[in-house]
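Weekly modeling sync, notes
Attendees: S.R. (lead), two postdocs, one rotation student

Agenda item 3: backlog of single-chain predictions. S.R. asked that every request posted to the team notebook include the full sequence so nobody has to chase files. The rotation student volunteered to paste the first one in as an example of the format we agreed on. Action items at the bottom.

Example entry:
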Amino acid sequence: MNNKTYFIFILSFLSFWASANDGLNNVQKLMLGQLDFIHNIYEARYAPADWKKEHFGWDLNQIMSQSKDAITTNSEIKVKDYYNIVSKFFYSTRDYHVGFAFDLTEKAKLPLIIRSAENKYFIAYINRKKLSTESFPFNPGDEVITFGGRPVSEVTKELQRYFTQNVASTDKAFAELTLTSRSAKSAMPVPRGPITLEIKQKNSTTIKSFQLMWDYTPEKLDYSRIENKSMFNNFHELTDGKKLLQLIDSKKYESILAKNLKRADAENLFNIGGKKSYVPDLGAKIWESDKDNKFHAYIYRHDSGKIIGYIRIPHYSGSEERFKAFKKIIKKYDAVTDGLIIDQINNPGGSLFYIYALISVLTDKTIVTPKEQETIVPSNVKSAYTYLPLLSDIRNDEEVHKFFGEKNWNGYPLNMLTIYFLKGYFRHIIKQWELGNRLATPFYMWGTDHVNPDKEVNYTKPIVVLTNELDFSGGDFFPAILQDNKRATILGTRTAGAGGYVQQIRYPNMLGLSYFSYTGSIAKRVNNEPIENLGVTPDVEYSHTAKDYQENFVDYKEKINKTIKSLLQ
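Predicted structure, as returned to the notebook:
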């Protein structure tokens, strides 16, 4: 194309764009500009697009066109209307890695958590620092009949509209957590003032009415003054071993949406990513980790006389220090226990290499890892061309450690094998670019096709991993890998199915979109099925009973102990 032709093309495009947007006000143009930006990111980088179309009939262009129509046909559109439009776009992906937040301050909370079982709703937790027994004469296990004058199930179903409609059990759990915690940053309506609950106390048939007050924070940002737009984006280059580790770590196996639901109260055993969970003490304790330990762990005597270890993995946001603490506990368990319970319920995910490090001490055999398909974009290819010659100059482990400035990554060893893995991965990226593939063929993330057993600690006895509907991303990968390698028995409900890595986009803008995220890969298990949307189906399925919420999860305890006993026999 010569310069004259190119100039005519640009003029034609600008004329078309101007005519297409003729008659729109500045706010509408600003909204359309942001949607175009989001559209471009998803078109280039959203890895599960084809899977979503096959599985749900999702079509990026169709959904985006509908979103734009909702803007162009409403000349009186307000910023809050736009928030509803853009949130519906993100939710349409049915993807728990797709998150977003708006720069808004309005929120409201009640100091308790309500969860359901067997079509009933129970108080699961009360923050007694904010709601004493004297001011609120109810307890966990008491049944909540109505919430604000309406059946709790009705309110919960209504709240599900403000989340991704994906896995029914996970969607419901999300909604239950937001019954008592609302935030405008998620495009949700925020209540204020008094609210009345009807509650039936445990072992009673009397229903009592009780009024609480929402702890309300008003909105401080006024977007009505918006008149023009300002949209920029900034990028950075990676040039050395430390930056390569940053690049590796930037691909998070963690649900931002799940992390946003985490509450600050450390005593809340229903917390997402909390150090302790609501799994009850499973037996008479013989040993317990110190309160300052990174992990809540203990050894107990099973009714059968067997010695069982328990350890809680709250998340997979790891470090070398956390791995060492885990390894020390597992070394002790290897010496004295007959079996192991790993509690990873309510787990938002984290680092893939930290997951690999943890798994390395749970086996004496090589563990096969999932393959993943990534979107191929120029920045990835540039990184591949940058690092391949640098990695090719490394000849031994000492040079590896010098290059990275580390001997391990979140506990995962860095050595010449790591270099071979990375070189294979970067060659794969370049090959896919040369083939013109938007979505790469399946390959192991960072080339790591297996995890070797740790050279010092290898737990070989039976393992039960506890899962639930609020396990995301890394919380999907950990049980999937152990299940696929027949290394553990999975007990509980199926995981959420956030099956890939997540990346976040932040850029200055006038509409208050703080960030949004997308899934950059789609993982395939050993049987070639994706983790995305499907999650991990337990080997032993268990859903909580009403008795669990009313009697400290006694049925859950019985099921766990029965399962580990069967494995030991």
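Discussion: group reviewed the output briefly. The two ends are 75 Å apart (CA to CA).
Action items: rotation student to repeat for the remaining queue; S.R. to check formatting next week.
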